[in-house]
Design brief:
It is a single chain. The chain is of the alpha+beta class and 198 residues long. The chain is 48% helix and 15% strand. The chain folds into two domains: 118 residues, no CATH class; 68 residues, no CATH class. Strands 4-1-3-2-5 form a five-stranded antiparallel sheet, with helices on both faces. A hairpin with a 5-residue loop joins strand 2 and strand 3. Helix 6 packs across helix 7 and helix 7 packs antiparallel against helix 8. The radius of gyration is 28 Å and the shape is elongated.
Length: 198
């Protein structure tokens, strides 16, 4: 079995008439047909497409791959439609017993749970930096240097991009979050865009 994806601008639905397949129409920036096709071989399927639509060429128009994922997962994915509409099933001779509505609901319930988990686990960057590299305010003139060191250490450890402005702003935010008296000076500095050394 093979997964197939063909942009609608290159073919008509009649392409699937003689195929044993499960095909849905996906609405996107470029509408396309996608699904699972049972055929002798990948090469034979490509030749079939070329016979039907000789002008259709390359990956820009279509793609065919051997099924490598679990069929059940693929079916659920292809049944996703949109979060408000079920998919448009063009043909289904492969899996006549599947409940399209149930697969559609399963996809969006799972998708919603994943989004909720991601949101719940996402912490602000400032909290992550301070969690891994705590900064202690001791008012001995080294507070900014300590905050900068924490920001740089965090970004290097996590291979995140750095810039002088990012380092300076996060270091100042750290100091503001730890020492309320510095917050007003930092906000004033941001407004005036003037260099201020703590």
């Amino acid at each position: 079995m093979y997964t197939i994806r063909i942009h609608c601008e290159y073919v008509t639905e009649s392409l699937f008439d003689s195929l044993d397949c499960f095909i849905v129409k996906e609405k996107a920036s470029r509408d396309h047909y996608q699904g699972i096709v049972k055929y002798k071989s990948q090469q034979a399927l490509r030749q079939y497409l070329k016979r039907k639509y000789p002008d259709m060429k390359g990956n820009g128009a279509y793609s065919i791959k051997q099924c490598q994922e679990e069929i059940e997962d693929l079916i659920t994915y292809y049944c996703k439609g949109t979060n408000t509409e079920q998919p448009i099933v063009i043909k289904n001779t492969l899996f006549p017993d599947i409940d399209i509505e149930n697969e559609w609901k399963t996809y969006w319930e799972k998708n919603k749970e994943l989004k909720t988990e991601k949101k719940a686990s996402k912490k602000p960057l400032l909290d992550l930096i301070l969690e891994e590299y705590p900064v202690i305010i001791n008012h001995n003139g080294h507070d900014l240097r300590n905050a900068i060191t924490s920001v740089v250490n965090y970004h290097v450890a996590h291979k995140k991009p750095l810039s002088p402005t990012l380092i300076e702003n996060y270091a100042n935010l750290i100091l503001c979050s730890l020492d309320e008296s510095k917050k007003e000076l930092f906000i004033e500095r941001l407004i005036n865009q003037k260099k201020y050394i703590w």
